[in-house]
């Protein structure tokens, strides 16, 4: 007001003038953003001096020109002035302010560009990490399936010498298990109920192979039937129990599988009799694929949010315990196949 030599200026007039000024700058900045955004992001010193410095002067003059056209009665308290004189008057008063606004917008847009590029790099890195994890998981699954297949085929081969009918039935069951595995494709998680049905079929095969030498028990809390677990997370443990423990017994073998929840934790437990942990570990040292595979997959799926332990409760009684986060599918998971087919 002192600059305009006006003692009484209505507040509404000032607010209207300032509002119009910043509205014009908003439109100019919007045009700048949509037309020169990529140039702002990549501008070097030469581009700034040759393009954006002249553009800042042009935009400042343009803004003042529009503003002077909109408010012909300003400045108040002075004799009427022609358009160019009023424009010169306002440019003298506010050119520096206009340049500050322009360059503030410029560096704000540039900062946004840096942030967007940073987030894009993060997204790409995360995507690459996810692809790497998926590739590693596929490699582990490819390692696990032949391991399961070879061990089962060896069992069928040995059974062919003693009970051809049982071996034939076991081979038919193996084909069903392989059909289930192929149908699952690259699915990393399935309902616990699906995993337990798969285990039941595998146990039926082993029961025929060992001709009643092993008593099998399964105890699953109904509340965790729909919990999601990694695919084939129990089968290698059960297979390991037979290969390095139960197969060494001539009678009175015991295999127990338990699934229960403890708060927000899913607890899976496999207990078997056999020859003891130390002897079994020595025999499995050369080909211990199954348990290592399980631990690797658990670490990749859950990080530190899981536990895996194997212990000998008493002489010859070995127990493997898994604890996982108790999670349920947000929407129903399609049944993988008809297990009884």
Describe the protein's architecture and organization.
With 341 residues, the protein is an alpha+beta fold. It folds into two domains: 11-123, no CATH class; 160-325, 2-Layer Sandwich (Heat Shock Protein 90), CATH 3.30.565.10. The protein has helices at residues 11-42, 45-70, 83-159, 164-184, 192-210, 235-244, 277-284, 289-302, and strands spanning 189-191, 214-220, 228-230, 253-262, 265-273, 307-314, 317-325. The strands form two sheets. Strands 2-4-5-7-6 form a five-stranded mixed β-sheet, covered by helices on one side. Strands 1-3 form a two-stranded antiparallel sheet. Helix 3 (83-159) packs antiparallel against helix 8 and helix 6 packs antiparallel against helix 8. The relative contact order is 0.08.
């Amino acid at each position: 007001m002192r600059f305009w030599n006006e003692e009484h200026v209505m507040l509404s007039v000032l607010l209207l003038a300032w509002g119009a000024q910043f509205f014009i700058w908003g439109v100019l900045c919007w045009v700048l953003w949509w037309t020169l955004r990529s140039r702002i992001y990549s501008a070097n010193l030469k581009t700034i001096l040759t393009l954006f410095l002249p553009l800042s002067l042009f935009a400042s003059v343009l803004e003042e020109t529009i503003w002077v056209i909109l408010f012909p009665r300003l400045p108040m308290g002075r004799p009427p002035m022609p358009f160019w004189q009023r424009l010169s008057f306002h440019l003298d008063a506010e050119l520096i302010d206009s340049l500050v606004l322009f360059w503030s917008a410029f560096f704000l847009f540039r900062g946004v560009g840096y942030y967007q590029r940073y987030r894009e790099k993060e997204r790409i890195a995360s995507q690459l990490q996810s692809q790497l994890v998926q590739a590693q998981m596929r490699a582990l699954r490819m390692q696990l399936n032949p391991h399961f297949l070879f061990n089962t085929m060896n069992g069928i081969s040995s059974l062919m010498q003693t009970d051809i009918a049982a071996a034939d039935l076991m081979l038919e069951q193996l084909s069903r298990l392989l059909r289930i595995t192929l149908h699952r494709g690259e699915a990393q998680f399935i309902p616990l109920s699906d995993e337990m049905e798969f285990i039941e079929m595998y146990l039926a095969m082993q029961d025929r192979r060992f001709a009643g030498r092993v008593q099998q028990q399964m105890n699953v809390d109904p509340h965790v039937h729909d919990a999601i677990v990694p695919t084939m997370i129990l089968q290698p443990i059960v297979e390991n129990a037979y290969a390095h423990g139960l197969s060494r017994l001539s009678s009175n073998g015991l295999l127990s599988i338990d699934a229960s929840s403890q708060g927000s934790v899913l607890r899976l437990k496999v207990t078997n009799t056999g020859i003891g942990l130390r002897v079994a570990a020595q025999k499995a040292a050369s080909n211990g694929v199954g348990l290592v595979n399980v631990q690797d997959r658990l670490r990749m799926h859950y990080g530190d949010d899981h536990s895996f332990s194997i212990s000998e409760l008493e002489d010859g009684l070995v127990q493997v315990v898994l604890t996982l986060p108790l999670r349920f599918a947000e929407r129903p998971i399609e049944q993988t196949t008809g297990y009884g087919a």
